[in-house]
Amino acid sequence: MRQIESEAQALAVSIAAGSHKLDYVAACIGRSRSYVSRMQTGSAPIPDRLISPLCAATGTNLLRQYVDMQRALSGQGDVQRLAALMQVAA
């Protein structure tokens, strides 16, 4: 998972790993083939509300895991920032 560089890449890998067709994934999530294509190339963002349906359609949690990892990593900055504020206040 550490080799994945974006949500779009996580989606593309998930689709390719399951040998899924874009039409199938699009039908599963109730969207158009072109929209799924744009999400997997990064030209359209992947809305949070579609993460679970996309994982179900592809049969893998790679996209969810990537998103969760990015959120956790971005939270580390908050911890460091808050710790610095506490040090200044002490």
What would your notes on this structure say?
The structure is a single chain. The chain has 90 residues and is mainly α. The longest helix is centred in the last third of the chain and has 28 residues, at 62-89. The mean pLDDT is 90. The termini are far apart. Helix 1 runs antiparallel to helix 5 (62-89) and helix 2 (22-29) packs across helix 3 (33-41). The protein has helices at 7-17, 22-29, 33-41, 51-58, 62-89. The relative contact order is 0.17.
Q: Would you kindly provide a brief summary of this structure?
A:
By secondary structure, this protein is mainly α. It has helices at residues 7-17, 22-29, 33-41, 51-58, 62-89. The model has no long low-confidence stretch (mean pLDDT 90).
Give a quick account of the main beta sheet: strands, pairing sense, barrel closure: none
What is the first-to-last residue Cα distance?
40 Å
Q: Are there runs of 5+ residues with pLDDT below 50, and where? A: none
Radius of gyration: 17 Å
Beta-strand content bin: under 5%
**N to C succession of SSEs:** HHHHH
Structural class estimated from helices and strands: mainly alpha
**C-alpha geometry:** elongated
Mean pLDDT, as a whole number?
A: 90
Number of strands: 0
Note the total helix count: 5
Approximately how much helix is present in the residues?
A: over 70%
